[in-house]
Records
---
Amino acid sequence: MATTTDVRTEEFMLDYLDNAVVGLHWVDGNAMTLWANKADYEPLGYTEDEYVGHSITEFHADPDVIADILQRLLSGESLYNYKARLLCKDGSTMSVLIASSGLFDDEGNFVHTRCFTIKDQASRSSIGTWADRPGQVPSPAPGSATSSTPTEAGLLRIGLRDPTARETFSPQRPGHHGGYGS
């Protein structure tokens, strides 16, 4: 059993990332997938070798959507609940929500994305209605709260507020942690 001090080791952190139930991946400035966990590629029917080392554009059904995602991330924007359709190995598509930000070095150069991919279940819920085209902002449920403060934004980020709202964060620059309202 892991102790409190064990959970901070590199081995435990790598295990946490590799075995997370949420898809995680890094993509460089040339759209090449540098790393991904199993939850990112296995639901699409791919193996690690078929996914990592390939352009992320190969796995997006809508070229204009992935171009928009990459352009926003390369310019320093962060995305939350960005709707996209991914291509499965069997030819079908999977609707997903993307939360991603870019990692920049001390000189402000883009290093890679920090992307979370979650299967879109909201389109089947009564919470709100997604726009038909991927990449569009969903319609919030009547009477749902919108984020107006960093605290509300933090609650949104961890899923305790309106899960149909797509948030855009401030750019992250060297020496600046970014976030809502910064």
---
Amino acid sequence: MAIKVGEVEALFRYPVKSMGGEALQEAELGWHGLDGDRRLGLRRMADRSGFPWLTATKLPELILFAPVRTDDESLPTTRCLALSAGGSVYDGDVTVLDGGALRLDVTGYEGDQVVLHVARFDFEPDGSLRERVWSLNGNEGNEGAERTLRLDVHHAKVETKEG
């Protein structure tokens, strides 16, 4: 015998912890909860505690951002949002290039300035990573704009000993 305990009036999913949610008409429900709900979070890299996640408790402005989720696998890009330790916000697209490299085309809101950046991450055959970041100058769009190299770092793969 089934007992009615209530009715669902609205259904929301929050893809990124502490960010805005999205209204749903329907959702898949599994042992882990709603599909796609709180599967991503912003991590404070310098925090070595058992809870390194950046939440709206620490940064209330997070709830003003709403991630965009798409299930369209034909799209070559994914939207991204990043927050710097200095409080700057970066919004843009991540594209997977041939060979597995990642390209980020982002707009940075750095204080009262808006700065366009392109970042590229190349995964080398030896397991290392090359990271380059350029700022863009000009109004010709990303392809025609003058680029100024801001960062060029080669991250070597480090072997660790277990024990």
---
Amino acid sequence: MNDVCDHDNHDDFVMARQRSISTHRARGSGSKQEDPEAVLENAVFWADEVRSLTENVSGALRNTLIDLASVLGDKHRWCLMGGLAAGFHSQPRGTQDVDIAVAGEAELDNLVETARNSGKFKKSRAHALVHKESGVEVELITHEHVKCDADLLSRIIDTAISVNLGGTPVPVASREGVVASKLLRGSYMDLADIQRIIESDGPVDLSGFDLSTEQLTKYNEVEKIAMGS
């Protein structure tokens, strides 16, 4: 595989790398970034930088996400979750794949068909696609697959915000949605992501999400640590 993926948007990616460096410096100094497009570019850029240390490919996550959003558009109910969404709402971090929430198994089947028919993706597992050009895997998260309440995942998708990446609209889970999704599993990495989100912009209002007492207790514990109380 080449060191840099061939892609129509490569020149845009190079420019994005330059913009992202200044954005990263601004965020690292504690200033609030008000341009969501630059913030998303920044989160994806640094995730790609970390991934390239082991995969020897630059821009793979960005190319995958742009192609995915271009193919799916608003024809399906989905949104970006996982490490990229967490990095968008806090400090960028590494990730190997693209995680998206999908509104149920029926929607999943239609989404997979759309992605495969585009010629840019192939199905690799029951709940995963692979971007043919980059080899990046796209994890497809449904409420049936992760065994959570259908209304909760639907709420996460419905409250997503649209942010352009390379001129392509990407539905990104809101900070509340990301935190709610992280509480479903509650792994060490999930709780660390929640802590970084709170540290970046303060406490998260989860009143719009039907979470269990145990999940809310976990959140409150992390909030106390993040707020230094």
